[in-house]
Fold:
Amino acid sequence: DALMEKAGMAPSQLDAVIFGRGPGSFTGVRIGVAVTQGIALGVDAGVFGVSTLQSIAQGCFRVHGETHVAVSLDARMDEVYFAVFACDDNGLMQPVSDEMLVSPDAVPELPTEGNWCWAGSGAERYRDRVLNASPGARIHDDCWPMAQDLLALGMAGVLSGASLPAEQAAPVYLRDKVAQTTAERAALAR
Structure:
C-alpha cells in the first residue's frame, strides 16, 4: 500500500507482478510466490517470474558492466545452483546454459567466447575451486538478487506478453532434498 501510494497508483492499475521464482531458499521462494499470488489475485493482474541466478547476472552487469557472467549460488550441502548468462543488445542478461544444481567441482566449463566473470555466494564460498577451474577469474562478491534487476528483466517479459495468470506463479527449486541426514553430514565431515 505504501509503495503504491508513493507511486501515485492504485493497485488496480497493476498489469503484472514480477517475482523472484528461484532457485534459492525453499522458504524464501515459497513466501515470494505466495505474496505474488495474493497481490496478483487481489487486483486481477498477471505474474512474471524471474530466475534468481539471472537477476544476479543482471546486477553484475548493472554494477560492474560485466557482459558475460557465470553465477554460482551457494545451495548448501556442498552444492551450488549454477547458470551462465550473456548480455543482449538491450542490456538484459540472457541464459547461455540451463540452470543446474551441481557440486562446486562439477561446474561445467565456461563457453570459450566472451570475457567471463563469476558472481554469487557460491563463487565466493568456493573461491579456491572457482580459481582452480578458471585461473585468474574475476569474482564479484557484491552482486545479489535486487528488485531493480528483477524489474528490468521482468518488464521485458511482461511487455512481450509473457505474463501468466496468478495461479500459475510457481517456484523453481532444482532440488527435491532439503537436508542431509546425520550420517550424510558425518560422511562429508570425514
Observations:
- Strands lie at 16-22, 46-51, 68-74, 80-87, 93-95, 100-102, 117-119, 138-140.
- Helices lie at 2-7, 26-43, 52-64, 121-125, 127-133, 147-159, 182-189.
